[in-house]
Design brief:
The protein is an alpha+beta fold. The chain has one helix and five strands, in the order E-E-E-E-E-H. Helix content is 16%, strand content 28%.
Length: 76
């Protein structure tokens, strides 16, 4: 990946996916396969930026999420 940010994610030709646990209030993080990596954006800002990560970076994050390493970030 030559760049790490796409300024307007609505211009990307991708299929965005969010968790089925997100609900309908638009308070979601969306993911999409893009080139050789993964793009992430906030669903409330479809014309906002997308951040690009390698597949190995996303795999490491998902492994940490599954292990509960980030649970403290969601507690009030």
């Amino acid at each position: 990946m030559s760049q790490h940010v796409i300024p307007d994610s609505s211009e990307m030709v991708v299929t965005w996916q969010k968790s089925s646990s997100s609900g309908g209030d638009g308070n979601c993080v969306e993911f999409a396969a893009y080139e050789d990596g993964i793009a992430i954006r906030h669903s409330k800002a479809p014309h906002g930026p997308a951040l690009l990560y390698t597949r190995s970076e996303i795999a490491a994050m998902i492994k940490g999420v599954k292990a509960g390493e980030f649970d403290h970030l969601t507690e009030g």
